């Protein structure tokens, strides 16, 4: 039958469909590109010349019957059999239509924003924690065209940030200011640390879909990557939350990586990264929850494990328990209350005429309260009290969209504070203390004889370094 014949036959059978199904059938009929995309992503078996697209039930129908290249053949009303045809389920149909709709909307925004692309990309690298929702949406509009580049950029930027960190750690004085020749490097380091979180969200916002077409050789290294570590390792609260969200978006593919990281984690930073990522993943993906709950059990820890490992695992398990309750929980309530308290604190420096001059926590709308923690630049490794608010955020984070991770421009403009180099210096000084302590512990563990200042074991009464250990 010719294409015209197929179309005429199809249109003549539309009376088999109810009104809601008729609207969907006609929308697919008018959108050849959408239908071809649905078929190309539905793994139609080789040799299958016709496909049944279910408009409701995958067994009872109704169905649209199309050729594998997207030509319409006929309609099968509810109860008519699609026997021997490969079926594209309604669930699959809705998912693909939703994704294509979002991509088209982003493409339209990308075209509208193309004259300002340089400005938005500069903001991504220069705004630090103050990257706005509108700026994020403008860059996200270009994400479908940048997806495969984003993974490379984030790894390259991570290496750059690590290099800057090591350079600054060598130059930071014990007290006082850094020499002014390093002012620009310090500022770039601070902004780029936050960029890692923004890039993580952009790279992960569509989950696995943008990377499914990559050859296996290119996908394998990614599937062994602790994706959240690129952001969490900067130890900044807001940045870490974006990294946790991003890794959880990939779900099952990264689960083996994080279970392995969880088993070997023995520093606070490693533990927060692995345990909290698993918690967000478990809240987001119900099918993985039982496996993740078992992995997070504190009962199987070795005796030498630091005490904070069991404590953080216990907090994460409480979050998973809250998710099982299906509805508003004390964890979500506490997260909202924590954010509202911060928003009221921000409001104290705003004029009374500001729409964000909140006097009571009850005045703060949820769209502000749930997101304020993402502005927090506290170093949670050296200020461990920040870990509890992070825990409260995990359940909300698991259900958040990419846009939810950013606050609107007018709110950012109201609460934004100037860049404070002394805050960044304090973080670096704390980092250096941790690094020196770790080196000292490693040296102590390798030491075979008595400490150099300890009494000499020969009984002379002298210090070991002045006696048998001399030279």
From TrEMBL:
<dbReference type="Pfam" id="PF02810">
    <property type="entry name" value="SEC-C"/>
</dbReference>
<protein>
    <recommendedName>
        <fullName>SEC-C domain-containing protein</fullName>
    </recommendedName>
</protein>
<dbReference type="InterPro" id="IPR004027">
    <property type="entry name" value="SEC_C_motif"/>
</dbReference>
């Amino acid at each position: 039958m010719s294409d015209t014949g197929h179309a005429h036959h199809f249109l003549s059978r539309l009376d088999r469909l109810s009104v809601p199904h008729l609207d969907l059938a006609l929308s697919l009929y008018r959108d050849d590109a959408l239908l071809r995309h649905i078929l190309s992503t539905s793994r139609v078996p080789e040799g299958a010349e016709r496909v049944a697209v279910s408009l409701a039930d995958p067994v009872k129908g109704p169905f649209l019957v199309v050729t594998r290249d997207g030509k319409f053949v006929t309609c099968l009303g509810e109860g008519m059999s699609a026997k021997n045809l490969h079926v594209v389920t309604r669930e699959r149909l809705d998912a693909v239509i939703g994704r294509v709709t979002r991509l088209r909307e982003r493409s339209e925004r990308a075209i509208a924003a193309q004259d300002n692309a340089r400005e938005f990309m500069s903001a991504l690298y220069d705004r630090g924690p103050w990257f706005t929702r509108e700026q994020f949406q403008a860059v996200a509009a270009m994400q479908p065209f940048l997806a495969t580049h984003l993974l490379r950029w984030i790894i390259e930027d991570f290496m750059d940030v690590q290099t800057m960190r090591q350079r600054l750690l060598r130059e930071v004085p014990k007290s006082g200011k850094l020499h002014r020749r390093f002012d620009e490097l310090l500022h770039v380091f601070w902004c780029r640390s936050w960029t890692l979180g923004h890039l993580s969200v952009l790279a992960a916002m569509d989950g696995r879909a943008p990377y499914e077409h990559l050859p296996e050789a290119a996908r394998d290294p990614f599937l062994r990557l602790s994706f959240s570590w690129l952001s969490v390792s900067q130890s900044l609260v807001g940045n870490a939350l974006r990294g946790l969200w991003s890794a959880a978006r990939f779900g099952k593919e990264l689960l083996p990586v994080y279970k392995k990281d969880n088993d070997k984690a023995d520093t606070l930073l490693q533990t927060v990264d692995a345990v909290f990522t698993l918690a967000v993943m478990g809240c987001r993906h119900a099918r993985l929850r039982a496996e993740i709950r078992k992995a997070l059990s504190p009962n199987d820890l070795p005796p030498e494990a630091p005490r904070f490992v069991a404590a953080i695992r216990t907090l994460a398990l409480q979050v998973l328990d809250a998710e099982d309750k299906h509805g508003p929980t004390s964890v979500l309530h506490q997260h909202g209350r924590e954010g509202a308290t911060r928003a009221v604190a921000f409001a104290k420096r705003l004029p009374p005429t500001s729409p964000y001059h909140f006097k009571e926590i009850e005045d703060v709308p949820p769209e502000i309260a749930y997101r304020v923690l993402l502005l927090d630049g506290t170093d949670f490794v050296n200020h461990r009290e920040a870990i509890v608010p992070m825990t409260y955020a995990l359940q909300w984070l698991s259900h958040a969209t990419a846009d939810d991770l950013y606050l609107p421009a007018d709110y950012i403009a109201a609460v934004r504070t100037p860049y404070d180099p002394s805050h960044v210096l304090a973080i670096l000084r704390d980092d250096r203390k941790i690094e020196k302590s770790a080196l000292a512990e490693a040296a102590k563990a390798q030491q075979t004889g008595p400490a150099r200042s300890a009494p000499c074991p020969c009984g002379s009464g002298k210090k070991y370094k002045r006696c048998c250990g001399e030279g």
